[in-house]
Amino acid sequence: MKRLTCLALPLLLAACSSKAPLNYHTLTSAAEPASQARAADFRFALQGVSVPPQVDQPQLVVRQGEGIALLENERWIAPLADEVRSALSADLSQDLGTLDLGDAPRGSGAPVLRIKVDLQRFDSQPGRGVQQDALWTLRLAEPGGERVLTCGSRISQPAGASYAEVVAAHRQALATLAGRIEPVARAFVNESVTKCLVGEP
Fold first, then answer.
1. Are 22 and 80 in contact (CB under 8 A)?
2. Residues 44, 182 contacting (CB under 8 angstroms)
């Protein structure tokens, strides 16, 4: 019996060591270059970001054929909604040349534009591409009341076959989304636009 136990132990250890490791992914970039954008004459506060419940999982969720696969060994480093918010916050800060106030107390001075993003689609197809459908709302408090504008964007981005490439494609799609919000936000605050720009679906 003792000999059998000794023989079984290496096999058990080998089985444990052969288990696939967990891989963690993030939508935030490693480092942001210095912003070259013209600084906005207002500040912004990115509110909470919502994501579809189907993909709001610790694991990456991808399309495989006609079905959906939840990848047990491929995980987000933080909840997906937080990952999306962090990436958008960094991209908007870069594009607008100003920092995201988030939930910080509002001081007097420059107006604060509140931005809310509702991701209604967050599709991933390794080897094909990713798609994001987003509704985004701009709110600006003024002495006469609050002005509100809601727009929609559909963004597709090709993706490689690896899961890291899928994540990178989503990262690029979020940067594109921030790039679409930026000119509308500037014009909205300056009252030169009251509707979404041409090209927004």
1. no
2. no
CA atoms lying within 13 Å on the CB side of residue 52: 14
Backbone angles phi, psi at 31, to 5 degrees: -155, 140
Token couple for 146:
């609050």
pLDDT one-digit tens code per residue, 81-128 = 999 999 999 999 999 999 899 876 666 578 899 999 999 999 999 999
Tokens found for residue 128: 């094909």
Cα angle 84, 29, 152 (rounded to 5 degrees) comes to 35
Cα–Cα–Cα angle for 124, 127, 132, rounded to 5 degrees: 25
For 70, which DSSP code? Answer: E
* HSE-CB of 78 using CA atoms within 13 angstroms: 10
Q: Amino acid identity, residue 166?
A: V
Strands 23-25, 67-76: pairing is: parallel
CATH code assigned to 38-189? 3.40.50.10610
Distances (CA, A) of 117 to 8, 12, 34, 61, 173: 55, 48, 25, 20, 14
Backbone Cα Rg of the chain: 22
Enter the tokens of residue 127: 């080897």
Domain ranges of the chain: 38-189
Q: Phi and psi at residue 13, in whole multiples of 5°?
A: -65, -40
Token pair, residue 72, equals 């047990």
Stretch 159-163: mean pLDDT, rounded?
Answer: 97
